[in-house]
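[job 0412] stage=complex_fold ligand=iron/sulfur cluster status=START
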Amino acid sequence: MVPVSLIPIPLRIAVAECELSELLAYPQEQLAAIIKEVGFRCELCSRCCTRAFNGHVFLLDRDVAIAKEIDPESIEPAPYPEFCDQNGTFYVSGYALKATDDDCGSCYFLENNRCRIYGKRFSICRVYPYMLHREPDERGKVDWRQVAGLDEHGEYNTEIPESLCQEAAAETRDYETACIMQEISFLVFMQDYFSRNQVRHVQKIYDDRMRAFARSEEIRIMVFCDGRLEDHRIRSSR
Ligand code: SF4
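[job 0412] stage=complex_fold status=DONE, emitting structure tokens
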């Protein structure tokens, strides 16, 4: 499979724009009906707030501002940088929440199995487990995915008021739209940045520097947030 960083940026922008139009054309009522039918209710197991269950918690730019205000130490550059230039500098879109070093990689804000900033929790935390994007299933068939971790947590077939289903559907669509728009902004910015600064993505340097990172060497990573790049030096904690 071709690494995503080797796909030409204009093509990636075109694909993302196409995804955005498909998302906007998806009827919100359809998602609300699925939410109603699934009838998911959180059982407060807190597993979804751990890396063992859910990987990284990515933040929208608007959430990064909130996280920085609550505790600037709570965030880190999102994993899987998209580009690395000939000088060994990585580029990634956005931040993720840090995890603690307990066995399951609990979220930085999880304490005694409860979110200690619940009233200010982030967009992804608010919409989870609902989602609305197209991705391949285990057989490679690309289709809409609407609910994450089905049958793996929580209770099902509970009664959810219609107004809450509509609200969750609207919020989910808003979140997915913001994600794609953030990705498009990043790609447009990088296209211009590469040409203005005479730098380019070099896959061999990317692979070499990722290996160095895995050996706990420091890497430089520029994080795209709010329309600009923020400079970081990081080491793997693994
Ligand atoms: S911020 Fe709160 S709700 Fe969101 S992942 Fe962390 S503990 Fe869970």
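The helical segments are 9-25, 28-38, 51-54, 61-70, 123-127, 162-197, 203-214.
[job 0412] exit 0
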